[in-house]
Amino acid sequence: MDTPLIQLCNVSKSFDNNTVLNNINLSIFKGEITTIIGKSGEGKSVLLKHIIGLLKPDSGTILFTGKAFSAHSSVEQLSLKKKFSYMFQDSALFDSMTVYDNIALPLQEASQLTKTEIQQRVKIRMTQLDIIGTEQQYPGQLSGGMRKRVALARALVTDPEIILFDEPTTGLDPIRKKAVHQMIANYQRKLGFTGVIVSHEIPEIFSISQRIALLNKGDIIFQGTPEQLNNDDNPVISAFIHGHESSLLDID
Ligand SMILES: Nc1ncnc2c1ncn2[C@@H]1O[C@H](COP(=O)(O)OP(=O)(O)OP(=O)(O)O)[C@@H](O)[C@H]1O
């Protein structure tokens, strides 16, 4: 198998006495969608934040194409950072900024593009996501589904190679959830980015994921394809995917 694009090696993280990640190992492969599942509060967001560098592990390493971030040259580190994009749990749009400005922001902050080039890039993404016409509106004036599309347009506007999605469908009704999943899958196919999704949408999320990682009690207890997950006979895993979360509490 290819070298993973991102590899967490023996990563541990505690907050005071709360051990959230306990020596975890996880591989993320280029061009795939890897979905991290697990009960609430297990550390899925903490794991995502380690990948993007918002949190540092207490011990262990995170490798990017086989090399620790710090082992890359400063030029490589900058180019690595530019490859990432992040779609937060609550969309994290700036309510005081228009839809246009929200989407244009990453380009204004991190690119050398002219105003006209930025306008063109924003327009392309807004057209693809069917939100043309909302440019001058504010996030608070939009429905939850529209806000997700604006957030996705912003996450995609820099043509990132790696996008991290933290519960991208939280708070949406089942139809809109499906639409957001399809949107992510379609763009992933079209643009070929590597996706890492944290999700509670089981089993729906499996249909757009090439790999699943199950985080339980600080450990990744499964990583593999959705099919392998479904066929796994570990009782903790089957209890989790069949929705009996409470039984996890009793198994160490
Ligand atoms: N900055 C922080 N300081 C202290 N504790 C933190 C911090 N960030 C996260 N935690 C703790 O780490 C644990 C895991 O939190 P995290 O948000 O990663 O869970 P999660 O699996 O993403 O949950 P959910 O599915 O409910 O979003 C929680 O106990 C949380 O309180």
TrEMBL record:
This is Putative toluene transporter subunit: ATP-binding component of ABC superfamily. Keywords: ATP-binding, Nucleotide-binding, Transport. PANTHER family: INTERMEMBRANE PHOSPHOLIPID TRANSPORT SYSTEM ATP-BINDING PROTEIN MLAF (PTHR43023:SF6), PROTEIN TRIGALACTOSYLDIACYLGLYCEROL 3, CHLOROPLASTIC (PTHR43023). One of its GO terms (molecular function) is ATP binding. The keyword ATP-binding applies. SUPFAM superfamilies: P-loop containing nucleoside triphosphate hydrolases. Residues 6-242 form the ABC transporter domain. Pfam families: ABC_tran. It comes from Moritella yayanosii. It comes from the Bacteria. Gene3D superfamilies: P-loop containing nucleotide triphosphate hydrolases (3.40.50.300).
